[in-house]
Amino acid sequence: MVGCTRRPRKRVKVRFAEPPWNRRSDEWQVRNQQVSVDHPARAVVEAMKPLDLTPLYNSYSGTGSPPIRPDLMLAVVLIEIREGRPSPSQWFRDTQENIVLQWAGFGIRPSRSVWYDFADRVAPLLEPWNAALLQLAQQQNVTQAERMSLDGTAVAANASRHRLVNKATVEKRLTELDVACQADAGTFGLMLERVANWTGVKPKAALVDAGYVTACNLAICDQAGIVLYGPWQENDFPQKKKKQDAKPHPIGKEHFAWLPEENMYRCPEGHPMPWIGHQKRRQSDGQINVVHSYRCSPRQTITKKQCESQANHRKNNDLKAGLSLNAWPNTAFGGNAHEWA
Questions:
Q1: Both 173 and 249 in a single domain?
Q2: Looking at the domain assignment, is residue 139 inside a domain?
């Protein structure tokens, strides 16, 4: 019996369709005059020049009708994203009537399905391109990559009076939203690693929103030598929340004195607060906090719950009262348990 092997097929050179216009076309010349010299779209097109688009070109198989040049489509997409229009359906509509996009794309008008296919095709390439631009910016002394900013992704609302749902559906979606928000905050350690991989250096400071100010993220930053800036227990409507909540404010950490040689706190009234125990608390994103408790009086304990000012005993927050906790595991920014005081 004679076996045979199939020879690997030689890669077919892909022939891309020429755009409707070129730089000598009257239509493009007119739009080139209409787009101002300082328009942001010109900066986007210029910033694309150092990008290696070979992986994007190689993602086409060369079968079927000639595809539209991907470099022109990428220019349109980057301009749209910069203007806050991330949807392929928006790209489709705007290329029909937007003069700037017609200028950048030399008159291309892909169909809606082609735009959606291009979004899937370009998604895995965005990270290496972003890393290449950051490294170029460092080489040209545009940035030292010492500060980073991390925030949630903006998602357009899809509300309509014609899409009313019942209470059970609303509560279910609120639960799903809460889980998603917790998972988003749990990616902080991985994002730090990604930034370090992109730039080749570790950031010295990170600016985040309230969702990322957690005990574990503080430990990650402390062990990595990163200063974390973010609002503590705030949201988009802090004043409204304060008006609705009639409870007294908890006592801040600055009112408690930490005595490291005695491993205890002293409360605002001057009473000693010795350590009485600890417990582990798992968050919804998988992080584990070890909360240490300190007693101020026989009837009160310092715990995570917000406190109310009472006669001779007070409570405090876990982060403000001092605790030890486990950092994010299995990352370059993680490590052993770290103690906050």
A1: no
A2: no
Is residue 297 within 8 Å of 325, Cβ to Cβ? no
Beta carbons within 10 angstroms of residue 227's beta carbon: 12
113 and 172 inside one domain: no
Domain boundary among 238, 264, 281: 238
**Which domain range does residue 70 map to?**
26-128
In angstroms, the CA 243 to CA 151 distance is 26
Using the CB atoms, write b or e for 5-35: b if 16+ within 10 Å: eeeeeeeeeeeeeebebeeeeeebeebeeee
Say how many domains are in the chain.
3
For residue 46, the Cα-to-chain-centroid distance in whole angstroms is 26
Q: What is the pLDDT of residues 215-265, one digit of tens each?
A: 788 888 888 899 999 887 655 445 555 555 556 666 777 788 888 888 888
Q: Enter the tokens of residue 18.
A: 């020429």
| Domain assignment present for 221 | yes
pLDDT for the residue 318: 35
pLDDT tens digits, one per residue of 55-89: 999 999 878 889 999 999 999 999 999 998 999 99
Burial of 324 (0-12, 13-18, 19+ CB in 10 A): middle
Please give the single-letter amino acid code of residue 172: K
Indicate the Cα dihedral angle 106, 111, 113, 117, nearest 10°. Answer: -10
**Proportion of the chain in helix, strand, coil states, percent, rounded to 5:** 40, 15, 45
Torsion 248-249-250-254 (CA) sign? negative
Res 4: pLDDT: 52
Instruction: Report how far Cα 158 is from the mean position of its chain's Cα atoms.
Output: 21
